[in-house]
């Protein structure tokens, strides 16, 4: 038994939840993958996987072993990359979760340039605005806006998103143009609520001018937990909304949105790449983080909050 081959087969079965799918991705037969895992279990004298006719589940021992295996395989990849001129570029599978608007507007359109630089990285992109458990969901890193709730994560700040308030011309025609953000607290106006996945709540926005700072809650008749749907609701005229500049810019150019409260400001939203504190930072993860940081200097360079 080749122990490295067996470890790779075991890791891929855990990641795909299937001997058949693991065999397909490794370009091996299902029988070969099954035999490799069985030989590994025999060597370790531990059951790593529970098999049934429908699915494969990792055991508690198998889950602990898997975490060690993926670190070891990443180390091997790094060692080979650093020594072999034929393998000078990082390679392998990278699992990343990003907010849906960031993926649609910035990240995905820029991927051809990423693959021109790193053609051997297999990127599995999860697109959501929910909180992702990096360990349970076997995600290498996440990109998230706002201060991180989980302070145990390793994180690198890669951007600062300028924010402002906007509304569609149709909304302003029907409800009037609010001149002060406090007008959104009365029954005449309405906002679009964005439900943050960490709390499930629609949180207020802190706005300030040269003289004071206020929290604007507003009244909503529609809320949503996805950034793309939130933007669509604003363009549809359902209420006032707060957006990062990169999301609003195309819709300002097409006159689908109008900026509000231009004498009022919001602190920029920090943008982080976060990953598990126990995770080995492989070459492929390191170059991805560097690439994201470089990309975001165009759209959202890191700045410090402006306090009034």
Explain the overall architecture.
Helix 5 links the parallel strand 3 and strand 4 (121-127). The protein is elongated. The strands form 5 sheets. A 5-stranded mixed beta sheet has the order 4-3-5-15-6, with helices on one face. The protein has a 3-stranded antiparallel beta sheet with strand order 12-7-13. Strands 10-9-14 form a 3-stranded antiparallel beta sheet, with no helix packed on it. The chain has 308 residues and is of the alpha+beta class. Helix 5 packs across helix 9 (283-299). The model has no long low-confidence stretch (mean pLDDT 85). The chain has helices spanning 3-16, 19-26, 30-44, 60-83, 100-117, 169-175, 227-235, 245-253, 283-299, and strands at 49-51, 56-58, 92-98, 121-127, 141-145, 154-161, 163-167, 191-194, 205-208, 213-216, 220-224, 241-244, 258-260, 265-266, 269-275. GO terms for molecular function: DNA-binding transcription factor activity; sequence-specific DNA binding. Residues 1-59 form the HTH lysR-type domain.
Helical residue percent band: 25-40%
Give the termini distance in whole angstroms: 66 Å
| Range of strand content | 15-25%
Q: H/E series, N to C?
A: HHHEEHEHEEEEHEEEEHEHEEEH
Q: What is the overall silhouette?
A: elongated
CATH architecture classification name of the largest domain: 3-Layer(aba) Sandwich
State the CATH superfamily name of the largest domain: Periplasmic binding protein-like II
Number of helices: 9
**Mean pLDDT value:** 85
Q: How many beta-strand runs?
A: 15
């Amino acid at each position: 038994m080749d122990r490295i081959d067996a470890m790779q087969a075991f890791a891929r079965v855990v990641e795909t939840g299937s001997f058949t799918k693991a065999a397909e991705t490794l370009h091996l037969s299902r029988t070969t993958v099954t035999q490799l895992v069985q030989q590994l279990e025999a060597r370790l004298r531990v059951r790593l996987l529970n098999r049934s006719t429908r699915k494969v589940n990792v055991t508690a021992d198998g889950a602990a072993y898997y975490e060690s295996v993926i670190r070891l395989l990443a180390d091997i990849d790094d060692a080979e990359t650093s020594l072999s001129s034929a393998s000078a570029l990082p390679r392998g599978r990278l699992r990343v979760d990003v907010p849906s608007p960031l993926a649609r507007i910035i990240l995905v359109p820029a991927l051809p340039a990423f693959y021109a630089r790193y053609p051997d990285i297999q990127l599995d992109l999860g697109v959501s605005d929910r909180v992702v458990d990096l360990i349970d969901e076997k995600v290498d890193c996440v990109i998230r806006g706002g201060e991180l709730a989980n302070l145990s994560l390793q994180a690198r700040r890669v951007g600062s998103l300028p924010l402002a308030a906007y509304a569609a011309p149709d909304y302003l025609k029907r409800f009037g143009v609010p001149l002060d953000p406090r007008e959104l607290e009365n029954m005449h106006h309405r906002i679009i609520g964005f439900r943050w996945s960490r709390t499930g709540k629609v949180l207020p926005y802190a706005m300030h001018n040269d003289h004071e700072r206020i929290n604007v809650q507003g009244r909503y008749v529609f809320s949503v937990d996805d950034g793309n749907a939130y933007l669509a609701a604003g363009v549809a005229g359902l209420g006032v909304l707060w957006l990062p500049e990169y999301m609003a810019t195309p819709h300002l150019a097409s006159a689908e949105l109008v900026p509000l409260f231009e004498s009022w400001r919001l602190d920029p939203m920090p943008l982080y790449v976060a990953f598990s504190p126990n995770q080995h930072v492989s070459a492929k993860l390191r170059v991805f983080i560097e690439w994201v940081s470089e990309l975001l200097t165009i759209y959202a360079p890191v700045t410090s909050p402006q306090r009034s």
